[in-house]
Each structure stands twice: as C-alpha cells, then as structure tokens.
Recover the amino acids of this structure.
C-alpha cells in the first residue's frame, strides 16, 4: 500500500482531475518541464513495472509525434533547411517536441490514476452522484467473471457429449456456439430471479437507501484537499491573466522571469509534487520507525 | 410468546389443481430451532417462502400467518425486511455485490442506516463469523462454504429475529456443511435466535433441533420434539420415502421396532446397540463381487501427471486407475485434492503432461473428438442444466438424435428403452427448468445415454438431491451396470458410495491412496466412514450400511432367542 493511495477518494480524484486538466493545456516550456519531471517521478514511485515496460512503446511514439509536426507545419521564422522546397523550421520542431512531452505526460498521469483509483474508489465517487448506477456497476463487476466461469463449465459439458465448437463442420460449430450461448442466457435469467429475490428479501427498494463505504474523510484529507484546490485556483487565475501562455509561432516568445511568474511556476510544481512528497515522507518515516524498533 | 403462528393456510399455484399447502397450522415459539423436513415436492419450500413476505410465491392463498401477533401482510416494510431473514439454497445466486464488505452492508444500506451504524454492525458480523481475513476480498474468490457463510452474515447484520433457511447446505461439501450447521446452532444457543430450517441432510440437524416438523403432500404429518417425532414415525412403513432421510440411528431403531428411547446421535446409537444386542454373529457372510472378469478393462489411467499452468503446482501426481466394464467405482476425498481434475483427465478434457489414458485399450490421444464421445465415453456434469437447451424434454432428445445422424427408427427404439429404464415418460412435455433436481439429472443422463457410452463419468451426482431421489438414481445405476456400462463417480457422499458402488477409492494429494470394495474400504477407515459403521463397529465387523447393521441385529436377536432357553 502506497501512502498516497490511502487518502480519501475525493482527494485523489481532485488531485488527478486538476493535474491532468492543467497539464493538458500548458504548452509553456517551464510548465512542460515541470509536468514531465512530475509525471515520470510519480510513475516510477507508483507503478514502476508497467511504466518501465511501457517505455519501449512511449519513446518511439514520443519521437514520431515530434518529427511529424515539422513535416506538416512550416510556420516559423528560423528556417533550418528545406525538404522538397518545404521549409523545416526550428519553431515547428520545438513545438512538436513540446506536444509530445505534453501527450506522454498526460498518458503517464492516467497510468498513475489507474493504479490509485481502483474500481471500488471509483464506484464510491459515482455512488455519491448516482447510487443506482453505482449499484449496477457493482452488480456487473460480479456478473462478468461469473458468466465467464459458467461459459467454461457449459462448453466443457457440451464438449463431453461431442457438441462443442471444436467438433464437426463449420455450420455445426456455429450451431454449437449458439447452443452454448443459449444455455448461458437461460441459466443467467433463471439465476437472476434468485438474485432479485435475495435483493428484495434484504429490503432493496425501500425508500431512503443510504450508501456505505469503507472510506473515511479524515482531517488530513481535508487539509490536502484544501492545498490542492488553492494551488489549482492559483494556476487558473494565472492562466486567466495570460501569465502561462507561450507562443511558438511565428517565433518563440521570451520567457518571463518576473516574481509573479516564478511564483506561478512554484505553485504549479508544488501541486505536482504533492504525492511525491507524501511518498518520500512516508518512506523516511518507515525507515526511522524500523531503526527505532 | 409465539413468534410465528400459521393458521389454516392453504395455497395453490395458478393453473394447478392440487394444493401445495393444505390446511397448515403451525406455531413456532421464540428462540426455537425448528427443522422442517419431507420428500421433495411436499411443499416445505413453499411454506418457507410464505413466511418471507417479499418473496412469497404468487397463487391462490387463504388463511393467515401471524408474526409476533401481527398479520404478516400488515407488517411495516422495514420491519418485514429486517426482522425476518431468509437464506436460500444456492450460495452463488444470493450474493449481489462484488466485494465482501459491500455484501455485508447491502441490506443495511437498503434500510437507510447511517455510515457509523453500518460500520459498527458490519464489524460485529465480521468478527462473529470470522470474516476479517477475507473482508476486503472480491466475492468471486471465496469457496462455496465461505459464500454461504457470507450470505448468513449479511442477513444477520440486519439483526433479524427470525432466520429462515431453505436447504442452505445442499450445495456445500460435508465439512463446510457441518461448519455451517455449527454456526446456526451457535446463533440459536448464544443469541436466542429463532431458526426455521429446511434440510434433507438430517443426520446433523435432527439431534440439535427443538422441534421437527414433517410434511407430506402439503400437510403436516408430525410436529413435535425430535424424540417424539422419531417415535411417531415408527408407525410408518420403513420403506416410506420419508424414512430414507432420517439419521442412521433413527432408521436402524425404526427398522428393528424396539420400543424405548430412540437414539438420535451416533453416541446414543452405540449405547443403544450394546444395550439391546449381542454380537455372537460378528459379521455377515461376505458376498465378494468376483463376478467381473478382471481382464475386461475399459478405462485405464497410467501414472498421469497434470497441472493447469506451466508454473502451477501439480494437481495429479502419478494418478493410476483401472475401471472394468459393468463396474461402479466411487472416487472420494476432500476438497481440492484433485478429484474433479482426475475426472477431467479421464474424460479427455485435460491432457496429462506425463502418463497415459487408455479407453478400451486404445490411447485417448488417438481418438478424434467425435469418436471419443460417441459409443465410448460420456460425462454427466454436476449441473445437469449445462446440458439442457430446449423448451421441452422431448426436444432435447430430438436435438441430440439430429446431431448423431442415426436413423429415426433406430434412435426411437433406443430412446424408448432409455425412457423406460429411467422412468421419465411423464416428463417429456415439461420444460427442463420446471423439473426437480433429481428429474433434471435423469433427463440429462438420458441425453447422455443416447450417445450409447460404455463408460459414464459422474461428477457429484448426489449433490443437492434428497434421499428418495438418490435411491431412484441408484436404481438407474444398477440398470446401467446390467448393460455392462462402467460408471465412475466423484462424490462426497460416503453413505451413497458405501451402499451402491463396487469399489471405493480414496483420493488424496493428486493420487489414489487406498482402494477397495466398500465393506473393506470403510471398515478400514476410522474417521472417513459411514455413520452405520461408526455406530456399530464396537460390536460388528464390516457393517457399513444401515441395512448391514439391521440384518446383523436381526440375526443376533434370533440367536439370542434360540440360545437363551438352553442357557436357562
């Protein structure tokens, strides 16, 4: 269990929603750098295995996306060379890389989101919005593996009377397949009656249904949620006043290094490093606990 | 105070002429543990469902049911839902959600309780039932016994005053079933919970019940303490279907017609036997079944090793077995020892990575699919419904005859013969799903028999069917035996295998550890043996079925009568 995952689902969702939301729109080089470092560090901390194995897919994608842009877009003032009378500009190349960084970072964020927001957390959040939908999802999550299991049992049974999809001519095989599905559906409907009875017997359908979850909103959740929302708001305000916009075309705008812009960079960086700080703090805490034992 | 009072209840399903419930009067006191029994179709399940308003069957009903003095129909919704708990037969179907904790809280959510209350009740239940270890697991990962325990816990979390259970252990293996019954007894003794239980496995529940209610054809025929019911049942014929389900000591007592206190448990049964019978004749003359020539081997497994995945553990470890034509072989053993996998290997569903399987002396690998499952080998799955597709039983047979591609006339001759053997002529126009468990099984078996197999593999054929249907099924097995069909069954049912098989094999740790004819097999075991043997082994040898014990007792009785005058 990673430390960050133990926070309340609302906090986790708020974090990922704001981080993914912001990094999707920022093309400012400093912001991109922060996004990229943040996303990679968090991925290494939370899902190292799938992140590393995914690299062989992301690295080529990164370069391809970066190369395609200068081939399509010929805007920009700094012309490096010509291919077939088409200008390849520095601006277009840099913009291509910036685009790639942004896309890859967002994908990395989603990877982390998947690790942290497990189905029951997602369900819990949805339950707040629509309890009925949440229950339907929970029922489905139970039924799908059950159906899978049952279909194996049925096809085994059919196989041992020589009527499965691996025997006979194509037409017989199709018929066998249909037969298996037909048995499954009858079985499912018949059993669903009993499940419905079980739900009714336990009072499903009474008014004022409540939703229960194992998640507790603690003080620290409120504290962290406050920080996340403040930082998010700061950045939105910054963007509203155009402090975070950056133009690649016709040529690069100058990087602003005013106290306000530096403040904004820091606020964005702080938002992104929240889980990293939590993980590191937890690691240190455990280390000292271990030594003091 | 009477918790449940049933007054003159009659019930009839729509479009049916017979009454399923016929003038039922019954009072269940608070804190009672009542067991309701009877053969299948006697109306016991229907009666139970009437006690739970939400799932009461539709039909023509008259009479009143009072719950704590109020008519059931007038109870407020919340009270009806929470105070009367209902556990059904199939553990799978009752589970609604995907997580254990969510399942425990489901009913409480429906009642609209707040989070803190739910948290507390769920914690209480998890502790009482020992669910902590799998509290956060997915419900799919649980075993059958755990699932049923979860169903019970989820209902107990709603704090019912009355718990109704409809054959809750029929889908469980014997160990899980005993554990479940033990939990019920604990609930009754420690919390004073009123329990109404329908069961066909009476061996364990009969002695612990406060009241036994026996039903037949929609009527209550006995309603008293277990001891008195056992006395009253003496008036019935010993071959009455009802008798078959009773605990072994009661059956033996009834058959011998001795008028004193009826022993209900094995312990009492032992003392009772010692008190009434001598053991001058220790064993019956054994009729060893040497009629089968040993060379007629139809199925042979040689040193089979099997595992499901390359890196998984071996499930079968050098499993070897021989089956002869016209022989009934039972494979017994605990859960997870690989019995069902062994059946899979014999049927060609799984391929062993080492070792060989021979059908009629020919390696199973050399058969094509079509060949193997026609005129050779057939499997009757645990759930007969996995074989049945059509709307009518007759169409089931037609469909398989179609696939077989044999002439209609030849097929019909064969079909008629099978239908007479299995005695299912009256079911041909019914929908397979409307039949009872035992009937469904017979129809599935008939379908399998149309393939004219020489070897039939059965996966737990007696699971979830009542004692009477078992008896019928045993007759079918005998008929197959006469046709020189070899039958191999995997089962948990010790009593059934002792009575009807020619050979029993104990499966353990991926292999057969002991194998013998039932009399020797069970008298060699100390724990894993029949109730009749446990009850009588201090007096008699090789008595493994209640019939054995009864005839030994009769012999000794006669001996006593003839010898006594000489001694005097």
């Amino acid at each position: 269990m990673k430390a960050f995952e133990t926070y309340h689902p609302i906090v986790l969702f708020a974090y990922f929603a704001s981080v993914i939301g912001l990094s999707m729109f920022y093309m400012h080089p400093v912001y991109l750098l922060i996004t990229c470092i943040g996303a990679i560090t968090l991925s290494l901390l939370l899902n190292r295995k799938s992140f590393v194995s995914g690299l062989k897919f992301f690295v080529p994608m990164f370069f391809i996306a970066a190369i395609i842009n200068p081939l399509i877009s010929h805007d920009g003032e700094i012309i490096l060379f010509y291919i077939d009378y088409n200008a390849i500009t520095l601006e277009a190349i840099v913009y291509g890389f910036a685009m790639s960084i942004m896309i890859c970072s967002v994908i990395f964020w989603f990877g982390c989101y998947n690790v942290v927001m497990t189905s029951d957390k997602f369900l819990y959040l949805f339950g707040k919005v629509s309890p009925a939908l949440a229950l339907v999802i929970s029922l489905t999550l139970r039924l799908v593996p059950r159906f899978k299991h049952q279909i194996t049992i049925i096809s085994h049974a059919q196989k041992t009377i020589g009527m499965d999809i691996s025997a006979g001519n194509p037409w017989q095989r199709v018929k066998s397949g249909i037969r298996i599905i037909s048995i499954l559906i009858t079985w499912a409907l018949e059993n669903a009656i009993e499940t419905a009875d079980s739900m009714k017997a336990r009072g499903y359908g009474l008014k004022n249904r409540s939703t229960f979850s194992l998640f507790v909103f603690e003080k620290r959740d409120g504290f962290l949620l406050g920080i996340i929302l403040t930082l998010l708001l700061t950045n939105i305000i910054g963007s509203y006043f155009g402090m975070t916009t950056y133009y690649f075309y016709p040529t690069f705008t100058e990087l602003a290094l005013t106290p306000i812009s530096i403040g904004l960079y820091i606020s964005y960086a702080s938002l992104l490093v929240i889980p990293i700080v939590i993980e590191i703090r937890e690691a240190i805490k455990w280390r000292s606990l271990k030594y003091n034992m | 105070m009477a918790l449940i009072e049933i007054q003159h209840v009659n019930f009839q399903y729509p479009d049916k002429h017979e009454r399923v419930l016929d003038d039922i009067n019954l009072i269940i006191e608070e804190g009672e543990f009542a067991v309701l029994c009877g053969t299948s179709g006697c109306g016991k399940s229907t009666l139970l469902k009437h006690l739970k308003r939400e799932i009461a069957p539709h039909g023509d009903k008259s009479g009143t049911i009072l719950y704590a003095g109020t008519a059931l129909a007038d109870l407020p919704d919340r009270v009806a839902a929470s105070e009367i708990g209902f556990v059904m037969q199939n553990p799978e179907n009752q589970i609604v959600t995907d997580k254990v904790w969510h399942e425990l809280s489901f009913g409480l959510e429906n009642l609209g309780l707040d989070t803190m209350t739910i948290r507390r009740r769920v914690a209480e239940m998890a502790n009482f039932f020992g669910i902590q270890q799998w509290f956060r697991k997915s419900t799919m990962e649980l075993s059958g016994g755990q699932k049923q325990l979860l169903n019970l816990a989820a209902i107990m979390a709603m704090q019912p005053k009355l718990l109704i259970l409809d054959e809750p252990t029929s889908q469980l293996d014997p160990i899980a079933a005993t554990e479940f019954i033990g939990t019920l007894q604990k609930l009754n003794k420690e919390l004073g919970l009123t329990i109404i239980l329908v069961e066909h496995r009476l061996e364990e529940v009969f002695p612990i019940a406060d009241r036994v209610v026996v039903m037949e054809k929609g009527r209550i025929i006995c309603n008293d303490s277990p001891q008195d019911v056992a006395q009253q049942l003496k008036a019935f014929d010993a071959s009455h279907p009802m008798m078959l389900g009773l605990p072994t000591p009661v059956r033996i007592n009834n058959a011998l017609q001795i008028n004193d206190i009826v022993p209900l448990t094995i312990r009492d049964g032992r003392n009772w036997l010692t008190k009434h019978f001598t053991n001058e004749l220790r064993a019956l003359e054994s009729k060893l079944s040497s009629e089968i020539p040993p060379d007629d081997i139809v199925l042979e497994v040689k040193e089979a090793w099997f595992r499901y995945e390359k890196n998984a553990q071996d499930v079968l470890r050098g499993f070897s077995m021989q089956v002869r034509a016209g022989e009934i072989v039972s494979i017994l053993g605990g859960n997870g020892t690989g019995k069902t996998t062994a059946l899979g290997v014999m049927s060609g569903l799984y391929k062993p990575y080492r070792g060989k399987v021979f059908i009629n002396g020919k390696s199973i690998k050399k058969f094509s699919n079509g060949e193997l499952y026609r005129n050779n080998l057939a499997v009757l799955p645990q759930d007969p419904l996995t074989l049945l597709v059509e709307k009518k039983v007759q169409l089931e047979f037609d469909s398989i005859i179609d696939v077989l591609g044999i002439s209609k006339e030849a097929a019909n001759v064969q079909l008629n013969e099978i239908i007479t053997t299995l005695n299912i002529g009256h079911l041909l126009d019914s929908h397979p799903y409307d039949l009872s468990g035992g009937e469904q099984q017979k129809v599935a078996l008939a379908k399998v028999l149309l393939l004219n197999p020489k070897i039939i593999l059965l996966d737990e054929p007696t699971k979830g069917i009542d004692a009477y249907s078992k008896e019928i099924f045993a007759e079918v097995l005998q008929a197959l035996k006469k046709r020189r069909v070899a039958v191999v069954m995997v089962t948990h049912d010790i009593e059934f295998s002792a009575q009807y098989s020619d050979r029993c094999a104990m499966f353990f740790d991926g292999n057969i550890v002991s194998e013998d004819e039932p009399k020797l097999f069970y008298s060699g075991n100390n724990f894993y043996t029949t109730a009749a043997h446990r009850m009588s082994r201090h007096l008699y040898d090789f008595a493994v079925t209640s019939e054995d014990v009864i005839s030994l007792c009769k012999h000794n009785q006669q001996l006593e009568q003839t010898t006594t005058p000489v001694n005097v």
In short: Chain B touches chain A through 68 residues (CB under 8 Å). Chain B has two domains: 2-235, 326-347+368-529.
